[in-house]
Amino acid sequence: METLRSRGITRDDVWQAADSLLKAGQRPTIERIRLHLGRGSPNTVSPHLDAWFAALGGRIQDPQGFAPAPGCPEPVTEAARYLWEAALQSASASAEAALAQREAALAEASKALQQEREALAQERQVMQARLEGAEAAMAELTRARDDAAERAARAETAAAAWQQQAEALRAEHAAALAARQAMQNDFDARRAAWDQERETLMQRTAANERRMALELDAARVAAREAQKLVEAERKAAVERLSRAAEAASRQGSEMSRLGQAIAVLEERVRQRESLLAEYREQAGAAPAESTAAAGTPPRRSRPARVALSVGKGRRRGRGL
Fold first, then answer.
1. Alpha-carbon span 18 to 53, nearest angstrom
2. What confidence tens digit (pLDDT) does each residue in 223-263 have?
3. Cα separations (Å) of 30 from 5, 17, 94, 215, 316?
4. Maximum Cα–Cα distance for the chain, whole Å?
5. Are 301 and 265 spatial neighbours (Cβ–Cβ below 8 Å)?
6. pTM over 0.70
């Protein structure tokens, strides 16, 4: 409802309200005009009020701008003139104050605008730098996209090759599984045959062990019998050795006596030979020398035969 009424506010309504406020000694403002009219939005009142302030100087210079209507009584005219002058002074002061405020606000707005322009310029530089960085990043992303597309194409090619290799490996794996199954079946058959053969060998081994145990028992019995025979033969051999040692001892004693006899005979032979040599020197006869020489060998041959028999007896004793 207020929106519809604010749309109905005209320039004359705002100007009349401003004149009334000025005549009442108040500075016209947007809020006061809205309170005076009882309606209106700031956006509607503000441009009409600005137009009123813009035309206020010309209206002040025109004496008839705020003059009373003709035919008014003199006191009213004097009061109106007094009010006019007061309003003129108030309006001048208000206009100057409003102008100063507007200039200050304009300066503040200009300063804020300049700061905003500088901020916008800085922001523009930042945005330009960001835009350049974004363009560079976009170019880098484009190159990365192209590289990724190329790598993807290579990866697809490699994946196709790997797929073919995988299919080949699957076929090889299936063939290997079939070969392993065949080898397993063959191994199972051979193992069954080996188990049967091992059972047979174990039975044969058990039979052989029983036979060998029987043979070993028989061999032990035979060994004990042989040990008895060997012990008997050893005792007989010991007896024979004892008898042979006794015989050898007796033969040694005899050989000692024979040796002594041989030594005596040899001494006698040397004595006779020396006597014969002396005799030959004294006799000087050849027949006698030949006779003596012919009779000498038989005497010397007997000790030789005795020595030979003694040597044989020694060798016999050593053999025993």
1. 9
2. 888 888 888 888 888 888 888 888 888 888 888 888 888 88
3. 16, 10, 14, 145, 175
4. 245
5. no
6. no
